[in-house]
Amino acid sequence: MRLFNTLQREVTTVSPKYGERYGIYCCGPTVYGPAHIGNFRTFVLQDVFRRALELSGTPTKHVRNLTDVDDKTIRDSQAAEMTLKQFTDMWTEKFHVDCAALNCLEPHVEPSAVEHMPQQIKMIESLIEKGHAYAADDGSVYFSIKSYPEYGKLSHLDTRDLDLGKTQNQRTNDSDEYEKDSVADFVLWKSRRDEDGDNFWQSPWGEGRPGWHLECSAMIREHLGASFDMHSGGEDLVFPHHENEIAQSKCSCGGDFAAHWFHITHLLVEGKKMSKSLGNFFRLDDLLEKGFAANAVRFTLVGAHYSKQLNFTLDSLHAAGEALDKLLKAERALAELAGQDEAPSYESLIGLEDKGLFENAWEGLCEDLNTQRAIGAMFGALRRAQNEPNPLTQWKGLHFMLHALGFELPVVEEEVVVEAPPHIQELAAARWQARSDKDWAKSDELRDQLKELGWLVKDGNEGYSLEQL
Hints:
This protein is α/β, with parallel strands linked by helices. It is built from 15 helices and 15 strands.
């Protein structure tokens, strides 16, 4: 496999450098609310990368953290009148439910910041001892950027003026997240403030809590070591978060830190930046409530190359549902020709050599994780697969690609005849016609009307059924 490396700024070969298992650290969610589809684009594409690597025969160690203490979790837990643990446990559970619905593999390790407080304090002590950090009068501790000459190489800040006095008025920044043009000594330990309430820990510098950037470095050191294979996250994390991680980790632990950096580009929704004020801010539940299936959401999120800005639309979700139906029909036909009635497991296809006509799709995925090319080649192969002399090979090749992309085919359900009043039957028939005409707006409007009247429409491959709510 080959993949673009943000640090080296070129496509490079992916292979384990520090052991037999390829170590991957993914910046996970801040558990203060449900993740939105922009977050899940990153998590889903990281999942595709891991699947592709494992199916190629390379075992992985996937570490994805939980940020369960920071400015937002403390603020919102207090607003909800819950303890920090109660609050973050609730949203952690929701995140797990959404990941399962989107068919993401569970990480091998899922550390939380709160669980790694001793490791974080030890790392700060090391940085102070080596002259890379200093304590302020209020008990906060900051990393000194000037102590690390290589600061800025990941985010290309090495080409800018890093004179702190010229970039901003203050020398230090104690916010967990801040603007991209803010170059300042960043906080490692935040002294206790009134607004923190009971959320503080003891340290050599007094009561307080760790800064957000430090949390990941400590968890990486604990679970992957000072040198590991890959660090990944959304493009917004390159600076300052990942830049700060490199600085504090290398200065405290030595080592190479991450050999490969994999960043995923943000998405647009209906051609615009996702925003609550624009009404285009979607969480998974929002889309499920509109009648879309989670597998269609995943199909859409995977549909564009990770380095390109995906335009996520409701029309694209409708198209994804139709594409998955086509995959189901093709799989059924191949299964019948191959004499198979049960899909092969993920584990049984690891290292599959003969992928038949689906080899081109696999090659697309292996060359810079080009999911768009892989999906196109997969559908191209489907048109010819049923006419090949060895249907079992083609059937396995199809399932190899379905597993690599993480696509779950629609569940086949027997249609149930529901005795509905005539006016409900008429509305349902009109909606089906609108759907057949690809008039998605009208179809959605009629579906919502039926729901308000107490009826749920379930679309099948050849028709629909009605279920009373």
